[in-house]
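Re: the 414-residue chain
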Amino acid sequence: MKRNLIASFLLSAIIFCRAQQSYNITFLHDNKVVYGTFTTPSGSGPFPTIIINPGSGAIDRDGTIPFVGGNVACLYPNLLNDTLKIYKELGDALVDSGYAVLRYDKLEYTYPTTLGTITFDKVWLPVESAIDYIKTRSDVDTTKIILIGHSEGSSIIPFIANGRNDVKALISIAGSRTPLDSLLAYQLVYIARTCNGDTAAAQAQANQILSYFNVIRTNAWNTNTPSLFGAPASAWYDYIRAVDSVSINYNIDHLPTLFTGMGQDIEVPPSELIRLQNEVTITGDFWSIPGLIHYMTPNNDPHVSPVLTDTIIYWLRQHVLVTGVNSISARNFFVQIKPNPFVSSFSVLINEGEIKNLDIRLTNTLGQLITEQEYKSPAANDILIFNENSIPSGVYFLNILADGEFISREIIKE
């Protein structure tokens, strides 16, 4: 049975900052040079590697989004005139946790006037060439390649994985099940209504988009069918054949898959996570993160939320996708919590006697610190007692930091 996990609780009490190494890189896709940044933790690797497949639009490798204009003033007044760099911040957090990350400029960004004829492959599938590129690097663990798709990018990654055997896992951030045209139609009308725009004009534009895609889906288009958003009908035909079946593609891939939805998402409303949950049967990991907008930030802070990045890191480690950081499990670190669930107190048994500095933190579902205990050179099999009779019933996390390495365990108060 599927679990719907509300991921506002994960690991935000513990953050590790590690040295990073960044390289400006290039690779070819459809005879165009793609420019990007490849960042690794310190060391020589090989590292498990994450490729960020960006959302729609002419966006750079950092995910730079200037929040300006009337719609921003209406929808996100507390972010007005801020500049977001969502993919850089997401990537940096993942690198800090031991993963190498590749981010790249979209071709529409690099070649705004010299892109040439737009095809589905050229514009939407550079991530394929990105995978081929990282497999040539000696600092990449080619058995652990992970794709993150944000927004529209999350609809592309399962299609990519269908044709390959070198993708280890998939992560969807703010992805939709609703087809692109219906989603665009919804956005146009919603923004017009919310921001006192011309609702009738927005509805007329929405109807035009829906009619255009109906022509494409019914295969009634031809070479005389006009382009839409700069892309010819042939590109949209290939697009809908790949993306309309997003749930089926995820099921066919049958890979470890995480779906994250943003609780205050306007562009891709939270109901989309429920739609995906109802159709994708190969995973139970559908995590709704309260308080975040489509761009992975709160609506009053331009920085990517650590709750989101901690959620992703936690999920990756739960699925034995080992990072480039030496893990406690590799040292045979074993933790026993008894009883779990507990009523008033619980004990922690750790069977490792070579730890110099041990820090144990109990956090609530908002990542807030409940209690913390520090130990110097604890003996193996010491029993550590936590008396927590005063906290309310619910889910908590025991975050254990040992000589700069950590493990996390869920614990329940009855």
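The chain has two domains: 3-179+244-318, 329-413.
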